[in-house]
Amino acid sequence: MDFSNAQRAEVLTQALPYIKMYNGKTVVVKYGGNAMINDALKQQVMEDVVLLWLIGVKTVLVHGGGPEITEQMKKVGKEAVFADGLRVTDGETMEIVQMVLAGKVNKGLVNLLEMKGGRAIGLSGLDGHMIRAKAKNEKLGFVGEITHVDTKPIEDILEKGYIPVISTIGCDEAGNAYNINGDTAAARIAGALGAEKLIMMTDIDGILEDKNDPSTLIHEISVAETKKLYDEGIISGGMIPKVECCVDAIRAGVKNVIIMDGRVPHSILMELLTDEGAGTLFRE
């Protein structure tokens, strides 16, 4: 669709109140799912992040990389095993996780952000021992439960004018590395930073009253209302841990959290800079 210069100017004018609202504020984006696999979507997400950075939003990108880890495991003849939705992580798998997440995926995203005109620095939870963790469950191996988040490395990078790009690997007092669930890590990081907003990118529209009908999207939910939705089975299956992360983030001091469909082009900008918004908003 072609826009006239006047229409472009009108769009920018409508975005002005939102630009003022988020300027100088911290927004954490949890990036994963199909938006990470599809190259065209990946380009658009990076454009959104760079645009936010350019208008003065302190943007923190927390990423996963499950499909890439599984692909690398196949190359070395290892089968991915999951329990309770988490990847069973033995010592060899942990080495692969660290190599893929902190190496290939993290540096690839940093490079892409730079190519889009941003300035980014990659971190893992091992850097500065930023994410402290302990073993979550013996049967899961090196899958970690976060015990502490030190935000100083993130804040230092934000202060210097860079976009922190964080891979979710943690460590314990003995220096053992742990694979950390990306949603959990993003929620804890956003809470520790006192972020204005946490954006959770998923492969669904948000919370639907009828999971087969996108028109039943619930646009806004309070923390208190989530219990009713659990009881009614509206929040179920794989959505339960995501919603728990949203609630934890709100309780930790994040102003609001959005679960939205990362498959929609420029969904981050739609959420932050338009009246329309995107997905399901969680608030206190």
Summarize, please.
The protein is built from ten helices and 14 strands. The strands form four sheets. It has an eight-stranded mixed beta sheet, with helices on both faces. A two-stranded antiparallel sheet has the order 3-4. The chain has a two-stranded antiparallel ribbon with strand order 6-7. Strand 9 and strand 10 form a beta hairpin.
Supply the number of structural domains: 1
The run of helices and strands is HEHHEHEEHEEEHEEEHEEHHEHE
Largest sheet: 8 strands, mixed
- What's the architecture, going by CATH? 3-Layer(aba) Sandwich
State mean pLDDT (0 to 100 scale): 91
**Structure annotation, total helices:** 10
Kindly name the structural category.
alpha/beta
Any idea what the radius of gyration is? 19 Å
Number of strands: 14
Catalogue the unreliable spans. none
Task: Give the CATH class.
Answer: Alpha Beta
CATH fold label: Carbamate kinase
Question: How would you summarize the topology of this molecule?
Answer:
Blueprint: H1 5-22, E1 26-31, H2 34-37, H3 39-54, E2 58-63, H4 66-75, E3 82-83, E4 86-87, H5 91-115, E5 120-124, E6 131-135, E7 144-149, H6 152-159, E8 163-167, E9 169-171, E10 177-179, H7 182-193, E11 197-202, E12 220-222, H8 226-231, H9 239-251, E13 256-261, H10 267-273, E14 280-283
Parallel strand pairs: 1-2, 1-11, 2-8, 5-8, 11-13, 12-14
Antiparallel strand pairs: 3-4, 6-7, 9-10, 13-14
Helix pairs in contact: 4-5, 7-9
Structure notes:
The chain has 284 residues and is an alpha/beta fold. It has a single domain, classed as Carbamate kinase (3-Layer(aba) Sandwich). Helix content is 42%, strand content 22%. It is built from 10 helices and 14 strands. The protein has helices at 5-22, 34-37, 39-54, 66-75, 91-115, 152-159, 182-193, 226-231, 239-251, 267-273, and strands at residues 26-31, 58-63, 82-83, 86-87, 120-124, 131-135, 144-149, 163-167, 169-171, 177-179, 197-202, 220-222, 256-261, 280-283. It has an 8-stranded mixed sheet, with helices on both faces. The chain has a two-stranded antiparallel ribbon with strand order 3-4. Strands 6-7 form a two-stranded antiparallel sheet. Helix 4 crosses helix 5. The radius of gyration is 19 Å and the shape is globular. The relative contact order is 0.15.
